[in-house]
TrEMBL record:
CFAP91 domain mapped to chain residues: 4-156
UniProt keyword annotation of Phosphoprotein present: no
Subcellular location: Cytoplasm, Cytoskeleton, Cilium axoneme
Protein name (Swiss-Prot/TrEMBL): Cilia- and flagella-associated protein 91
UniProt KW Cytoplasm keyword: yes
Key words of the record: Cell projection, Cytoplasm, Cytoskeleton
Cleaved signal peptide residues: none
Principal place of residence: cytoplasm
GO cellular component terms given for this protein: axoneme
Family of the protein in this entry: Belongs to the CFAP91 family.
Amino acid sequence: TLGTQTDYRDGEAQTDPYSPEYVIPRGSVPELLTLATLTWGRGLPAGLAEVEMIERAREKRAWEATLPAMDSASQIAKRRKMMEDMERKEWAFREQEIEKLQELRLEVLKKLLQRRVENQNKLDARRLDDHWENHQKAKEEKFKKIQHDFVLMLRKLIAKRKNVMGKLERRDIIREYTDFASQTYAPLSRVGYFPDNLSECYVVKNFYLDTFAGLCELEASLPDSVTQLKIKTPKPKNTTTETGYIKRSARLEVVLAQVHQ
């Protein structure tokens, strides 16, 4: 009999809507009790299927009210015939519901199969891409090997063509030293020469730079002008011209000095 108003939303205060208790007067069968089996999340809030079920229940109650009384054999036969007709209608309706459920399940299965086919196609495309990439890498490696073999064989052919007749050639020292690309100036590593192994021969080793006594002797041999600095005072700039006028730069320096003060 009392109601309250809170500052909270229904979603914050409770999970399911509240259903109050009820009392049925004698001799009355309210229609609302036919929906007592419906709960929140299972039929409530009511949708199109629940509305059809309610209409069908109303029609059935109206049909039950039209059934004849069982006071004679003719009325009993009529009542049985009406009940058989109603039972056929209910079976037909149930078959329709089963067909609808089967169609829904079939649609779900179709969607699942389509999704599985799409995932399989994506997986196959990814595998094909990986396979193609591996083939491309193998192809590039093969091309590199062919190019390397081609250069190697070309060098061998050039070396053979230099001495086609198979004659012995004497060493031409003048030609070797005049050609800066010869083996004398730029030996090749494939011939067996590795310049990094003899890098120490280019290191400068000097007595005056590596020892303390050498540094002292080098310092003593230097002239005084190197160790002792002599600063000459600069001559004052000539602020006047030959005709006796003051230069513009001198006037600016005077103005800047006044501004600074």
